[in-house]
Amino acid sequence: ESRAGRMVPLLAVGGLVLMGLAALAILVSGRSLVAGLSALFMLILGFSFCVPLIVKAVSMLLEPLAARVGGTPGRLAVGGIVRALSRTGVAIVALAVAVSATIGVSVMVGSFRASVSDWLGASLQSDVYVGVPRGSLDPVLLKDLVSQPGIRAYSTSRRAWIETESGRTRIIAIRPAPGSEAGTVIRAGDPETVWRRFETERAVLVSDSYAWRHGVSAGDAITLVSRQGPVDLPVAAVYQSYDSNDGAIMMSRRFYDVLFDDDGVDSIGLYLEGGVDADALMDRLREVGKGRQALIMNSNARIRDLSLGIFDRTFVITNVLYWLAVGVAIIGILGAMLALQLERAREFAILRALGMTPGQTGTLVTVQCGFIGLLAGLASLPLGLLMAWILIEVINRRAFGWQIGMLVEAGPLLSALLLAIVAALIAGLYPSWRAASSRPALAMREE
Fold it and tell me: What is the pTM of this model?
C-alpha cells in the first residue's frame, strides 16, 4: 500500500499527459476516424490514471466529516478506502469507466434523437406525402391527384443519381410549394438570400454529409456532368440532413430540367385546406390511383412516428451495452471487496474484540461500498460528458459527416450517479455478509 500510495501522483501525471495527447490527436488528425477512436481510448485511460489521486484527496477531506456523522465506523469506512487504495482504486476506476460509458452513449443517442426529431419537424412541412415504389409518377395521374378537393398547394421532388469523379452523387430536385422553403434548415447564412440564389442563380445546397466528405462550404463551387457537359454550380449554403450517410445535392427543379432533361417526379407533398381529414383524403387518393399505379402515401405525423421508431430500434443495442457495462463493474467491485475483506480479516477480528458487533461490521463494509459507488459516480460524470462530446463532435462527424447538437439533461446524469451507488451496494452485499459472519477468534489466533 505504501508503494501504491507513492505511485498515485506519478499515475496522475501520466494521465494528464495521455489526456493532452488525446486532445493533440483530435486537433492534428484531420478527418481520421482511427485517430478519433485512439484519442477516445487515451482520454479514458488518462482520466482513469487520475482517479486514484482524486479519490485520495476527497477521502482524506471527507474523513473528519464522516467521523462526526457516523462516528468511528464512519471514519473507518471512508479512511479505509485510502488505506487500501491498491484495491479500492481499481474498483472505483472500473465502476467509473463503466458508468461513464453509459453516460457518453446515452447523451450521444439522446442528442442525436433530439436533432433528428427537430429535423423531421422542420422538414416535414406537407400534410400528406405521395410517391411510387420505383420509377416516377405518371404525369396524368399526378394531375388527377393534386386536383382533388381539399388540396390547396403541392410540392414535387425528384431523386436521381449521377456519376462524378468522386463516385455516385445523389441529386434532389425540388419544386417547393409557396413558403415551404423553410422546411430546409440552413446551417449558416441568410435564408432569404440563399433561396433567392437557389431559384435565380443555379446555386445549389449541399447536405452536411456531402459538405464534410467533399470539403465544400458556402461560397465554393462543385462540378457536375450534365447532358450539356461539365457545369460549375455555386454552393449557396449547407443544409441539415440525416437521411443519407453519403450526402446529397439539392437544386431547383427548373435548373435540373435544363441540365439533365428529366421531367420525372418521385414524390409529391400535399398541403391541405383547413379542416380536411388527412386519412379520408388518402383513401380518396388510393381510389384515384387504383388500377393505374401503385402508390405509397403517409401523413406527416405517421412519417415522423415511423422515422423515430426506426431510430429507437436502431439504438436499442445501447441498452445491452448499458447493462453489460454495469454487470462488469459489479463483478469488479465484488472481486475487489472480497479481496479487501480477506486482507482485512485480522483487522475486523480486532474490531470485533474491541466491541464492534457483527451488524456494525457489516454496516462498515456496506457504507464503504456505498461511498465507493458515490466516488465512482462523481468521477464518471465529467468523463462521460467528455466521451459524449468526442462521440458527437469527432467520431460521428468523421464517420458520417453529420452535425449533431449536444443535448445534456440532468435526468441521465442523476440516474448514472444513482446507478453507480446502487451497483456498488449490490456488489457489497456478499462481502458485508462475509465480514459480519466471520469468526474473529480464528483470525486473532493467526494474528
Answer: 0.82
